[in-house]
Amino acid sequence: MKRRFRLTRSTDFKRVRRYGKSYAHPLVVLYALKSDRPGVRVGVSAGVRVGGAVERNRTKRLLREAMKTLLPETVPGSDLMLIARPPLAEAGLEETRQALSGLLQRAGLLVHPHDS
RNA sequence: CAGGCUGACCGGGCGAUCGCGGUCUUGCGCUUUUCGCGAGAUCGAGGAAAGUCCGCACUCCAAAGAGCACGGCGUCGGGGAAACCCCGGGGCGGAGCAAUCUGCCGGAGCAGGGCCACAGAAACAAACAGCCCCAUCCGCAAGGGUGAGGUGAUGGUGAAACGGUGGUGUAAGAGACCACCGGCAUCCGCAGCAAUGCGGGUGGCCAGGCAACCCCCGCCGGGAGCAAGGUCAAGCAGGGACGAAACCGUCCGAGGACGGGAGGAGGCUGCUCGCCCCCUUACGUGCACUCUCCCUCGGGAGAGAGCCAGUCCCGGGUAGGCCGCUAGAGAGGCGCGGAGACGCGCUUCCCAGAAAGAUGAUCGCCCAGGCAGACGCAGGGAUGGAGUCCUUCGGGAUGUAAACCUGCAUCCAGAUCUGCCGGACAGAAUGUGGCUUACAGGUCAGUCUGAAGA
RNA sequence: GGUCCCGUGGUGUAGUGGCUUAACAUGCGGCCCUGUCAAGGCCGAGACCGCGGGUUCGAAUCCCGUCGGGACCG
């Protein structure tokens, strides 16, 4: 995923985490907040509970890869934050994509909600 | 062949598609750098990148000072920039049949303190029982009581009791003395660079253990850390000078400079000394106004309501951008020296530099490995199977898979084939030397033990 | 990057060289009490002190290493 679609600043993370609305799934937690920017920006995060550095990096890669394919279907003008949970370290790519798709649908952020 | 031990090493490979970060070149947006979007080339995690247990480089703290405190280390020689590091020795132990592995290492003799439960007379300089002698009392005597003294052999405890055996000696005894042995210290000789070992002489039997208790001796350590530190833009906090006149002295260009005193903040990330640097000496015993009182007419006391404005200059920290930021005690190869750690020489190479933090995903083939299933092996063997070759198309040559025969094995193992599973521990964050810990599976060399065969 | 603390029955703590194969509370099991339950009384089980070495005659305690958990500072 290109860097311009990413959340990079610490203050952005704090803002989304504080004022965004959250949606939970056993594998991942989604925070969403409306923004005045045109595109969608995504930040990924993995806490210590997920595992060591290998597991944390792997879960973050997994979330970015899964989000990449879902990006065109996402409603623009919002900042998203994805927080990995411990079971995600054992999950595959397709599993992660389905989890994310479900979460985005619940948040009302998918352009074609009934397709998937 | 099986199981170990030691050392060294590998840590999946290839291809396709999608995707990420750096550098260089290049096209476009756009006008140069910058920035954004593309294209191409190239590079892109480890043996531990980990834990952060020791070092070092580097940066800042004024210079990086002294002492104390505190902490660490402590056999010998060598290596190394250094290290709670490495190599090779020594001494005392421990594990194993063995190869081999492994723990400890200044001082408890004269620096001193402390502790050694229980038991025991006594836990480090003491005397409970006992033994002996003398005095005295009782008794015919044997012997017993009391008191003064000698002794430390005997006892039993304990983890540990002040050398052992034999003799001389004595009232009884005792290293009090003698011989031998053990141990300690010291001297000499030999071997070794040394620690130390071996042999001989001398000494006095004094001298228990614990310094991973305090401590003593020797050596080492200033502190903080790349969020170090530098820099850029924008602000803000804050500060300074003049205003402004009041500690003392000196100087002159007359308002400042320098020096000293006093007080305070900070720094040497514990303390003290010493030193450095800064501030104050104007929120007060102040300034100036009004009123009242006193007076030696200089001033003093009390009360009231006020003043400390303004101007100019300097200018952070954090967050953000950039630098620091990767060419170095560097890596590979070859040769030489050395027992080894390691060193030297030549040569080739440039080998991640991210910043919510880049190496992955999917598929195919292979390589190790694991599990399950199938299959007896070798030789001979045809009115001659499939295939191949020749052909005049009639056939011929070659040819052992099978049945069958012989031998050997026997439901085990090995080899072969098929299917399925399947790749450990773990991710750079300034660099680097060690140590420690985690780790599927495999390779090579040396070596030990066991079994079988020759 | 740096610093510190804690691991002891199921749970929470004490014990910091020996008289302690470890104490207290709560929880657990059995019995008594009661018509029954609770409370109460009596009895009992439950730990080789996170793990591995070492020092010592002797270690939960001292030293070293290691594993896990937690806290703090920038």
Principal-axis shape equals globular
Mean pLDDT: 79
CATH architecture: 2-Layer Sandwich
Helix content: 25-40%
Total beta strand runs: 4
- Characterize the largest beta sheet: strand count, sense, and whether it forms a barrel: 4 strands, mixed
CATH class: Alpha Beta
Supply the number of structural domains: 1
Count of helical regions: 3
H-E string: HEEEHEH
**Distance between the ends:** 22 Å
Structural class: alpha+beta
Please state roughly what percent of the residues sit in beta strands, choosing from under 5%, 5-15%, 15-25%, 25-35%, 35-45% or over 45%.
15-25%
Gyration radius, to the nearest Å?
13 Å
Q: How is the largest sheet built, in terms of strand order?
A: 1-2-4-3
Poorly predicted spans: none
The third-level CATH topology is Ribosomal Protein S5, domain 2
Describe this structure in words.
The chain starts with 9 loop residues before the first helix and ends in a 10-residue tail after the last helix. The chain has 116 residues and is of the alpha+beta class. α2 crosses α3. It is built from three helices and four strands. 36% of the residues lie in helices and 22% in strands. The mean pLDDT is 79. β3, α2 and β4 form a beta-alpha-beta unit. It has one domain: Ribosomal Protein S5, domain 2, CATH 3.30.230.10. The chain has a four-stranded mixed beta sheet with strand order 1-2-4-3, sandwiched between helices. It binds two RNA strands through α1, β3 and α2.
Task: Based on the model shown, name its key terms.
4 strands; 4-stranded mixed sheet; about 35% helix; Ribosomal Protein S5, domain 2; about 120 residues; RNA-binding; single chain; alpha+beta
